[in-house]
Amino acid sequence: MKVILLRDVAKIGRRFEIVSVPDGYAQNKLIPQKDAEPATPANVKRVEEKAKLMNLSKAGEVTTVKEIADLLTKDPLVVKMEANDQGHLFQSVHVSDVVSAAKARDINLPEQFVKMDTVIKAVGLAEVTLVANDYKTNVSISVVAK
Prior knowledge:
Layout: E1 2-5, E2 18-20, H1 23-30, E3 36-38, H2 41-74, E4 77-81, E5 88-93, H3 95-104, E6 114-115, E7 120-122, E8 124-132, E9 135-145
C-alpha cells in the first residue's frame, strides 16, 4: 500500500515522502497513529502544497537569521547583567536575556534561533550561535555589569 508519511518514521522514510509499506502495517499502525495517510491523488496534492509552503517558510527563516546576523556583526548586542567587582555574573546569561537585549534594540529575534554552546558567567565579549535549518552563524554579544 502506498502512504504519505506525516512524520519521520524510522527505517521507513521521512516526512512528506510517498512510500510503499505492507497493507497491514499501514492500516494497523501508521494510519491509526497519524504517522501516515493513504496516498490518494487528493492527499498527494494537498501534502505537496503543504511541503512547498514549509520549504518557503524555512527559506524565510534563513533570510531573517542572516539579516539579524549582519546587524549584530556590525554592532554587537549589549546584555546588562548583575555582576560583582571582579566581573563575575551572579547568574549566567540565558537565551531569554539575549532576546530581551535584541528587543531593546528593536530587533525581532525569536528564541528558537538562538543557541548557546557555552555558559556565559563573566563580563566581556561572548559568542552566541544563530541557527535556522541548515544555516548556522556565530555572533558576538557584549556582557556588561549593571
